[in-house]
Predict the structure of Phospholipid/glycerol acyltransferase domain-containing protein.
Amino acid sequence: MNDRLYHTLRLLAAPFRYSCSDAGCPSPGQPAIFVANHCGPIGPIQSILSLPRRVYPWIVVDMLDSQKIVPYLYKDFVTTSLHLKGKPGWFLAKVIARMALPFLNSLGCIPVDRYDVRFSGAFLRSLELLERGEALLIFPEDPLLPIKPQTGMRPFMSGFLWLCVLYKRKTGSRLPVIPTAVIPAERKIYLGEPMYYREAQFPKEDTRKMAQEVEKKISQLLAESPDC
């Protein structure tokens, strides 16, 4: 999706957007990674519509595959969020897929295959965008783990933070990671202060620890909300 179409979409959807604090948000032209809680489909939709930056979302590769999107939507959304099963559920999944697939492909989404241990395609595309001063949007909750009742989030995976390592090695600059809390009850998005990867002797352990720190910060932002 070109920038004009992207901003037109945001303008048309303005009545439905959440308010968003922009304290600590990197200015346009400065690379960043926004890391948010998922909240089902609400997190991705409202983050795209409401964040003060144009963002490029990471998305599961099945959602950009014409052969896989229907069963993925049926299993991950229609049966779980809409509680619709059988033939009506499959029919709805096909309808949603027909509308969603061309839209997602034009939005600039970055397909991520969690079974590709190196995320090579996603990393290459992401680094190209970051070097151009663009911002990414990532939802790192692990779909295979249970939701924590205190936060409504699943534990975070840490693989995306290798972008910080690779970006620093390639450019010599640190990459800001912005904790992003989507709160449907308030119709608000809260941004935490930028966090930075601290490279030490063991990058794998360091990225895991930082993922926990980002998750903790988002949990704190959620806990500060009176409606959560």
